[in-house]
Specification:
The protein is of the alpha+beta class and 91 residues long. Helix content is 16%, strand content 18%. It starts with a strand and ends in a 29-residue tail after the last strand. The mean pLDDT is 83. It binds iron/sulfur cluster. The site of iron/sulfur cluster has 15 residues, from α1.
Length: 91
């Protein structure tokens, strides 16, 4: 399954992705984009959003990376139990 990621450090909150692909992106409390859904990703729409991002903050990856639902780090960790620095879920 493919999964969307927004690199917050790169996002400048321009809103392009939110306007183009509002089913998948919305602003967080800091005015930066966040992924709100990975369900039924329309790759055509998402690719336009990715190409429209002025800072290259959006990525779509095959979900062969961290699968922890509490994490979303996108790191290639496969840790079991989860030792991801972004997570601490201990699952
Ligand atoms: Fe942030 Fe890029 Fe979306 Fe603009 S298009 S809000 S910079 S992720």
């Amino acid at each position: 399954m493919e999964k969307l990621y927004v690199e917050k450090e790169r996002c400048i909150g321009c809103g392009a992705c939110v306007n183009i692909a509002s089913d998948y992106f919305d602003f967080d409390d800091d005015g930066k984009s966040q992924v709100i859904s990975n369900e039924n990703i329309d790759s055509e729409v998402v690719n336009v959003a990715i190409e429209s991002c002025p800072t290259g903050a959006i990525e779509i990856k095959e979900n062969d990376v961290c699968e922890c639902e509490d994490c979303d780090c996108g790191e290639d960790c496969h840790c079991d139990p989860c030792e991801c620095e972004n997570c601490h879920c201990g699952e």
